[in-house]
C-alpha cells in the first residue's frame, strides 16, 4: 500500500529535483488563479518551505495579500510515454511576501541554473520591484503516481494516490 511505501523524505527528494510548478491563488472575486512558476526549496536544515521569485505588482502577489491560502502542484510528466498521466505532488499552505534580500529565499533560488537566472532579474528591466513568495505548507502533502511504474498505475490507477506528512521538526 502506498502509505507504507513512501515517506516525506522520498517526496522531498523528488521535489528538490524540480523547478517548475503550478501556483494557485484566490483572486478578488473568489475565483482560482493558477499560473506556472519557477520555485526553490528551503535548505534541508531549515523548516520546509517553497519560494517563488516574482514581480511585486503581479496578480499572484495581490491575491496573496488578500488571501494567503495557496496550493502548489509539482508535476512529473512521463517523457517517453506522453499519453500516460503525469504524477504529481500537491502542497496546500499559507503564502507570505518576503523581501528580495531574504537569505533563506535566496539560498533556495540559488540551487539550479534556471533559478539563478531568475535571481539575476533586473528590477528596472522587469518594471517592478522583485520579491519572494514564501509558501509554508500544511503538514499533509498529496501525491499521485509518484514512485509507481506505468504498469502499476495502469493496473490499479485508483490506488496510486497517497498522502505523506511533513515531520514536525521540518515545519
Describe the structure.
- The chain is built from seven helices and seven strands.
- The chain is α+β, with helices and mostly antiparallel strands.
- It has one domain (2-164): Pnp Oxidase, Chain A (Roll), CATH 2.30.110.10.
- The longest helix has 9 residues, at 8-16.
Give a nutshell description of this structure:
It contains seven helices and seven strands, in the order H-H-E-E-E-H-E-E-H-H-H-E-H-E. By secondary structure, the chain is of the alpha+beta class. It has one domain (2-164): Pnp Oxidase, Chain A (Roll), CATH 2.30.110.10.
Number of strands: 7
Helix/strand structural class? alpha+beta
Largest sheet: 6 strands, antiparallel, barrel
The CATH class is identified as Mainly Beta
Q: Spell out the CATH superfamily.
A: Electron Transport, Fmn-binding Protein, Chain A
What sort of overall outline do the alpha carbons produce when their principal axes are compared?
Answer: globular
DSSP helical segment count: 7
Features:
single chain, 171 residues, alpha+beta, 7 helices, globular
